[in-house]
Amino acid sequence: MKSIMKSKYNILLMIFLVVLTLTSIYCIHSITKIKYKIYSAEQKDTYNYSTHNKTPEKVKDIIYNCANKEGLKDNMECFTSEIKNFFIYNKTDDNIELNFTQLIERGGDCRNWAQFYKSLSIAKGYNVDLIRLKINSTNSHIFAVASNEEGYCIADQKSLFCFIYK
Questions:
Q1: In sequence order, what DSSP letters do the residues of 8-71 get, joined into one string?
Q2: Which domain, by its residues, includes 69?
Q3: Positions of the chain with pLDDT lower than 50, given as ranges
Q4: How many domains does the chain have?
Q5: What is the pLDDT of residue 78?
Q6: How far apart are CA 119 and CA 128, in angstroms?
Q7: In-domain check, residue 32
Q8: Could you tell me if 151 and 76 are in contact, meaning their C-beta atoms sit under 8 angstroms apart?
Q9: CA dist., res. 144 & res. 123, Å (int)
Q10: Phi, psi dihedrals of residue 145, rounded to the nearest 5°
Q11: 3-state secondary structure at position 146
Q12: How far apart are CA 16 and CA 1, in angstroms?
C-alpha cells in the first residue's frame, strides 16, 4: 500500500515539476520578449475597443456564459476562453488592486489575472490556491490552481493545464 502511494506521489511530483518547468520557461521568455501595453486614462480615447467585441460587462456574465459547462476542466477551459477575448498584459504595481472594469480596460499582470481566475473558480465552488514562484531577487510569477475531487487545473494568464484523476 505504501509503495502504491509513493508511486502516485512520485507521478504527481513529476507532473508538477514538468508544469513548473514549462511555466518558468514561458515566464522567462515573456519577461524578455513582451513589450508591455499600458493604457492610461489619457489614452482611453485611442484604445481600440473593436478588438474586444466579446468583452463581458460584469464578472457574472462570464459565470453565466460558462454555466452550462460540466466539470472542472470544462469550466476552467470556458473561463480561459472568455478571458482570451479581453486579455491584456500590463505590468501592475502589486499595491494596486484592480476591479473588473479596470482589469478589462487596462489589463493586469500575472497576479491580477491569477486573482481573477481565483474569483471565478470560487464562484463555481472550486478550491483555489495562488502559487508564487520566485524567478530571481526582484521578479516572481503567480498563477492559480483550482481543484476539486475530479483533479486540478493550473490557470496561468491565457494558458490552462488540467490534470483529471479519472
A1: HHHHHHHHHHHHHHHHHHHHHHHHHHPPPP---GGGGGGS-GGGGTT--SSHHHHHHHTTT--S
A2: 54-164
A3: 27-53
A4: 1
A5: 95
A6: 9
A7: no
A8: no
A9: 14
A10: -125, 115
A11: strand
A12: 23
As a dihedral over the C-alpha atoms of residue 97, residue 100, residue 102, residue 108, rounded to 10 degrees, the angle is 70
Q: What is the model's pLDDT at position 11?
A: 74
Grid cell in block for residue 64: 453565466
In the chain the first and final C-alpha atoms are separated, in Å, by 19
Residue 147 belongs to a domain with what CATH number? 3.10.620.30
What is the distance between the alpha carbons of residues 36 and 57, in angstroms, rounded to a whole number?
24
pTM: 0.67
Structural domain includes residue 103: yes
Does residue 148 form part of some domain?
yes
pLDDT tens readout for residues 94-115: 889 999 999 999 999 999 999 9
Q: Residue with C-alpha cell 515539476? A: 17
Torsion of the alpha carbons at 52, 63, 121 and 140, rounded to the nearest 10: 10
